[in-house]
Amino acid sequence: MPRPLSQDQKLIRRILRVNHAGEHGAVSIYSAQLKRLPSGANDLEAWLKETLSHENEHRLAFREAMSSRFAKPCRALSVWSVGGWFLGSITSTWGRTGIFACTAAVERTVHAHLEEQIAFLRHHDTELAALVERIQIEEISHLSYAEERLGPKSGLAASLRTVISFATEVLIALSTRGDSIRLRYRLQAAIEG
Ligand SMILES: [Fe+2]
Ligand SMILES: [Fe+2]
């Protein structure tokens, strides 16, 4: 009879499931922005292609990390595909401001989640902690690139970032059926405990 999972093992599986789904959404966002790149933002094509290749690598790395930890992908991956594609498409209609505001909002939200995960994983799964830290370096580079180019805060950029950050958190919570919220509470409890 299989031994019941410890709380730590459950948390590690949740981290993998949420992260893999998030990378799936990121692939959809950047794919849509590339596909619908407005003519005034053609110079962003190379950066979007490179960023998309990073997100594909991240998704694969989290998927590969699942098997040895007996974790399974989120069952609502299609929500991430549709949500990501919608977000990428709509933000590209605002051109450079929309694309950079989207990247800044999404990557800032992701960054906050990764910080908590690393603090927990350093004590419970050093191999996975190292993977998340490696991926976080590239996520920070996406965030910095977008924030540097957003320039002085415009009303449009600030509004888009607020709406997109909120939408990203809601999408994460809905698609994981509240897992991301429980994960945040449990990670904070585990880190503090
Ligand atoms: Fe990523
Ligand atoms: Fe990213």
Automatic annotation (TrEMBL):
SUPFAM superfamilies xrefs: Ferritin-like
Pathway annotation from the record: Cofactor biosynthesis; ubiquinone biosynthesis
Alphabetical list of Gene3D superfamilies matching this protein: 1.20.1260.10
GO MF, one example: 3-demethoxyubiquinol 3-hydroxylase activity
Keywords: Iron, Membrane, Metal-binding, Monooxygenase, Oxidoreductase, Ubiquinone, Ubiquinone biosynthesis
Family annotation (InterPro entries): Ferritin-like, Ferritin-like_SF, Ubq_synth_Coq7
UniProt record, GO biological process: ubiquinone biosynthetic process
Keyword check for Lipid biosynthesis: no
Source organism superkingdom: Bacteria
Protein's name according to its UniProt entry: Ubiquinone biosynthesis family protein
Organism this protein belongs to: Asticcacaulis excentricus (strain ATCC 15261 / DSM 4724 / KCTC 12464 / NCIMB 9791 / VKM B-1370 / CB 48)
